[in-house]
Structure formats: C-alpha cells, structure tokens
Amino acid sequence: MTSATASSHHDWESDLEHYRSRAVHVLDTHLPAATGCTECGDPWPCARACTAELVLEL
Ligand SMILES: [Zn+2]
Questions:
Q1: From ligand 1's centre to the CA of 39, what distance in Å?
Q2: CA of 24 to the centre of ligand 1 (A)
Q3: How many helices and strands, by DSSP H and E, does the chain display?
Q4: Which of 1, 6, 10, 19 is the most exposed place for a label (fewest CB within 10 A)?
Q5: Angle CA(16)–CA(22)–CA(25) in degrees, nearest 5?
Q6: How far are the Cα atoms of 27, 40, 48 from residue 31, in angstroms, in the given order?
C-alpha cells in the first residue's frame, strides 16, 4: 500500500480512520460463540462483523 499523498486532498483519510475505529470496536464486541455471535446472536460471522472486516481491509 502506498502512503503517497494523493493530488486531491480530501477528508477520505480521516473518514477512514473513523470507520476503522468503529470497526475495531465492532470486532471487539461481536465475537464467535457456539450459538453464533455473542453480541447480536446471528450465525457467525454476523453481518456487522463481516462489514467491520471489510472496512479494515480498506
Ligand atoms: Zn454480531
């Protein structure tokens, strides 16, 4: 991944930081258990955990 500054300076980086910190929090609370997600009870991986992992991939 390149850290070179893009020609157009946008708030994208700070937005991304915001999403990432939220994603980390989600992954901290939505944990796999035998019955499914410990937080929302959906079959693991739950939608929120999937989305959080997607955000951290960015
Ligand atoms: Zn969950």
A1: 5
A2: 13
A3: 2, 2
A4: 1
A5: 140
A6: 7, 9, 11
Q: What is the pLDDT of residue 6?
A: 55
Determine the distance from the C-alpha atom of residue 57 to the mean position of all C-alpha atoms in its chain, rounded to a whole number: 8
> Structural domain boundaries of the chain?
12-57
Q: What is the pLDDT of residues 14-47, one digit of tens each?
A: 998 999 999 999 999 999 999 999 999 999 999 9
Q: Distance from the CA of 19 to the center of ligand 1, in angstroms?
A: 17
Structure token pair of residue 8: 């157009």
The answer on pLDDT for 10 being more than 60 is yes
pLDDT at 18: 94
